[in-house]
């Protein structure tokens, strides 16, 4: 298996772009070592201007690199795999799929026998080096896991999980970015209502959310323990928390994540 730094991202939409930009920002790759493919090539003009290789030819992208990241929509996956399979070499290539719902077995059935395949579920915070990425591989792909983990470690945190946990990872980590952003937006709107300028309210809400996450990650404590540090008897914090819970804050988040996981499981259906 090759260990060069060359990388091709097939389907450079939001996730693909975030991956490319994050790797370059962290110095893992130079722009010239990353090839991006997309049918609407003009949408990559800004990245081409920064030195990334761009093409609408997926086969050319495969031939240019050793690590191939497939980041297309689930309904496009089978066609793309059938297209690139003849150019994939198990002794050279590693294929990484970030496609929601597509199991390694689905992928391997359309690829050369023995090709290392890894599933990854990052989020768009890769561009800032703050992604939470879950990884999984079957027996053939296990040898490639350290290489792929090193790549995603540069873009945030990684966790290797059983493959059956990749759909839940989609809901909690990939979709979760949107959920926490919506909470930040709601907090900023509350800030506006109590008197802050919209720009100030958004900054206050976002930085407070960052601080809360940092307390959990750096202190290693359960969120409720951190909550106990800022709630006092008959205080304003507990009054606000209770009002939010009466309105269904926690149950809404839980139900949203469960619903997203159910939807993620149905995004890709193998046509055989």
Helix-strand layout with pairing:
Blueprint: E1 7-10, H1 14-25, E2 34-37, H2 45-49, E3 53-55, H3 58-64, E4 67-70, H4 77-84, E5 94-97, H5 104-108, E6 117-121, E7 131-137, H6 145-153, E8 156-160, H7 166-174, H8 176-193, H9 198-219, H10 223-228, H11 236-246, H12 249-265
Parallel strand pairs: 1-2, 1-4, 2-3, 4-5, 5-6, 7-8
Antiparallel strand pairs: 6-7
Helix pairs in contact: 7-12, 8-9
Task: Describe this protein's structure.
This protein is of the alpha/beta class and 272 residues long. The protein folds into two domains: 7-162, Rossmann fold (3-Layer(aba) Sandwich); 176-265, Orthogonal Bundle (ProC C-terminal domain-like fold), CATH 1.10.3730.10. It contains twelve helices and eight strands. The protein has an eight-stranded mixed β-sheet with strand order 3-2-1-4-5-6-7-8, sandwiched between helices. Helix 8 (176-193) crosses helix 9 (198-219). The radius of gyration is 21 Å and the shape is elongated.
Identify the notable features of this structure and list them briefly.
2 domains; single chain; ProC C-terminal domain-like fold; alpha/beta; 8 strands; 272 residues
């Amino acid at each position: 298996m090759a260990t060069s730094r060359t990388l091709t991202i097939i389907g450079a939409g939001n996730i693909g772009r975030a991956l490319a930009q994050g790797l370059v920002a962290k110095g893992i790759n130079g722009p010239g070592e990353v090839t991006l493919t997309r049918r609407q090539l003009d949408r990559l003009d800004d990245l081409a201007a920064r030195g990334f290789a761009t093409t609408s030819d997926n086969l050319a992208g495969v031939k240019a690199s050793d690590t191939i990241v497939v980041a297309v929509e689930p309904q496009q996956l089978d066609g793309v795999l059938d297209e690139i399979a003849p150019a994939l070499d198990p002794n050279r290539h590693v294929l990484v799929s970030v496609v929601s719902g597509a199991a390694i077995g689905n992928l391997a059935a359309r690829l050369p026998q023995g090709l290392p395949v890894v599933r990854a579920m990052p989020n768009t915070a890769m561009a800032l080096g703050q992604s939470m990425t879950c990884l999984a591989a079957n027996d053939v792909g296990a040898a490639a896991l350290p290489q792929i983990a090193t790549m995603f470690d540069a873009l945030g945190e990684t966790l290797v999980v059983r493959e059956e946990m990749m759909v839940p990872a989609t809901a909690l980590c990939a979709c979760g970015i949107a959920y926490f952003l919506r909470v930040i937006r709601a907090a900023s709107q509350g800030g506006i209502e109590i008197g802050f300028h919209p720009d100030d309210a958004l900054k206050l809400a976002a930085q407070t959310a960052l601080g809360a996450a940092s307390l959990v990650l750096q202190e290693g404590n359960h969120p409720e323990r951190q909550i106990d540090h800022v709630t006092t008897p008959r205080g304003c914090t507990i009054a606000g928390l209770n009002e939010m819970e009466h309105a269904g804050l926690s149950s809404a988040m839980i139900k949203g994540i469960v619903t997203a996981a159910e939807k993620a499981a149905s995004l890709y259906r193998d046509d055989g």
